[in-house]
């Protein structure tokens, strides 16, 4: 704490009065279902984003991030938020959303540190916005609960930054707990905490291929899903319960495949929750494997690097199942492996991956509560 306070004082000439943090997340199952009003099953990861903050009486915001290579203190005034294409846009999006919701807000100084890899599909942006909202809530005694906090964080990304994300990331960063998966119904925002299995470990491997939700491919998938729902005459693809629904045959090929993934993925999430309740790690494996095949073939959001990592992980005895996780087009994979084997499997997978793709992969383990 002393070192962080000293860094803050060197930047802003005062000491922080508030500290907040938010963990990143990995999605176990339920990919591209959140913006289709479906079901998702993420869990928080050890990595987090931390914010030290000192409020003041004027409208000036000054912010610094250790993740920013330029290392500059950036500034803006409340009420004059303007997109710059920089990391501070997430802070600007938050303050704009908070003020639009009629919460009383003043200026502040903020220092951001994080050990969540950017572009790895592990919700570094959601962790940043949730951590900032927690800090602002404490600093200015703002009256919003954790669900409303998640909605404000999502508004910051969608309305200001321009990334058309669903609400899953912000919900789990705001409401997730270590050692548990968080079942979220993204239509009603109802949640259920489900214990992770104690006889297995969750292994996450970052491919080193960055992805971005604001990119065109992610946006295109959203448009294709919305078009499929409109052609089917439903509010969202969540309203189609079976991938064998005969109405799907009437869709154009692309929309049919997109819809088939979303419908089947919702079913996999609900099946996974039942298996988690039963403590059946082995039963979860085929669901993870099927999810990856669907994301690769029907939704077409994987890439050669992710496919290699998944295949390598699946090839090892002790791996129950593996799939890409996150929005796709890069990012990370998640694997469920037998207790005590995550480290050895990760080292073998990363070594083989480096030989095939000349890239370095990073990994970590999400532990269930023992």
Could you please describe the fold and organization of this structure?
With 370 residues, the chain is of the alpha+beta class. It has 2 domains: 2-192, Ribosomal Protein S5, domain 2 (2-Layer Sandwich); 196-366, GHMP kinase, C-terminal domain (Alpha-Beta Plaits), CATH 3.30.70.890. It is built from 10 helices and 11 strands. The protein has helices spanning 2-12, 88-100, 124-140, 146-161, 168-175, 216-232, 253-278, 281-297, 304-314, 342-357, and strands at 18-29, 39-55, 60-65, 74-77, 108-114, 180-185, 191-195, 200-206, 319-325, 332-338, 362-366. The strands form 2 sheets. Strands 1, 2, 3, 4, 5, 6 and 7 form a 7-stranded mixed sheet that branches. Strands 9-10-8-11 form a 4-stranded antiparallel sheet. Helix 2 (88-100) crosses helix 4 (146-161) and helix 7 packs antiparallel against helix 8. The longest helix is centred in the C-terminal third of the chain and has 26 residues, at 253-278. It starts with a helix and ends with a strand.
What can be said about the biggest beta sheet? 7 strands, mixed
Low-confidence stretches: none
Summarize the amount of helix as a percent range: 40-55%
- How many structural domains are formed by the residues? 2
Structural class: alpha+beta
Radius of gyration: 21 Å
Globular, elongated, flat, extended or rod-shaped: what is the shape? Answer: globular
Number of helices: 10
